[in-house]
Every structure is written in structure tokens, then in C-alpha cells.
Amino acid sequence: MKQHAGDKDIPLEINSQVYTTLASILSAQIEVLEELTRLGEQKTAAITSEEPRQLEEVAAAELAQVEQLNRWEQQRLRLIGAVEQQAAQLLGHDMRFTLQDLIQLASVSEQRTLQEFHSRLDQLAQRLEQVSALNQKLLAHSLAVVNFSLEVLTGSQQTAPTYDRPGRGKGAKTSARVLDAKA
Question: Is the pTM higher than 0.85?
Fold first, then answer.
């Protein structure tokens, strides 16, 4: 059974190089998240201005940044894994470390720096989530508009409007929505 490092005090001294490396990784992750947020905002502009080529370019740039973020995250996980291994050898049982656990084990100056990075990462992740949610809504709306336009152009309709209760079969049903049928 693995024990979580936050569960108790650990008599473990971690080399300051680990914290320097961790700070470098977190700093790089911050840069990538800042870029992803900027790209998300560009995506919002591309969606609202109905520029499909720009949207395609932004999506490709986002993919490259996500891949970079994944590489940095793998490095962070390897670093934490090495600390967990060191702790297991020293203490005689497996330990799990979160970023917050490592921050608590650091010196006061390292704690301050790492905590600032941790807070910035949280802020950026929340902002990116907000931008992504907005873009998802905008894309859904754009898709609905395109679908409606295709229905108008092709003469397709869902159900003729009636004043009867839904599901009663009064309206004339026609073909499925154009894009839904294709998907």
C-alpha cells in the first residue's frame, strides 16, 4: 500500500537540484499554458469572425502546444517519481508525492518560488478552462447556424410547427438534420 506524503511528516531531505529542476519545469508549463490561453482567445476571435482558415491554423498551433505541455508533464512526473523512489528506499515503504507535498518539503525560499508557480498554474488552468468552454459554446452555436442554413437551402425541415403537445404526431416529420445525419 502506498502512503501519501501529506499524511505525515517525512524525514526526507531533497537535493536542491530537484527543486531547481522542478521550478524550470513549472516555469515552462506556465509558458505553454499562457500560449494556450492566448491561442484560445485567438480561436474565440476566429470563431466569432467566421474565419475557418484562421481557426484551422489556431487549432494546429494549439495541438503543438498541448503536445509540448504533455512532454513537460512527463518530465515533472519522472522527477516526482525519482523523489518517491528515494523516499521509498530511505523509509522502507512506497510514498506518493503531490506537488504541494514537495513544496512543503522545500526550503523557505524554494517554497515561495514553487508556491507562486503552483498558484500561477492554477490560475492559468482555470482561465484556459473558461476560454475553452466559451469556444465550445460558440462552436456549437456556429454548427447550429450552419445546420439551419443547410436545412433552409435543401428544403429539409424537422417537424412542421403545431400547437399540439409534443410527441402526438400532428406535425409532418421530414429528414434528419443535415449535419446530424452525416455525423
Answer: no
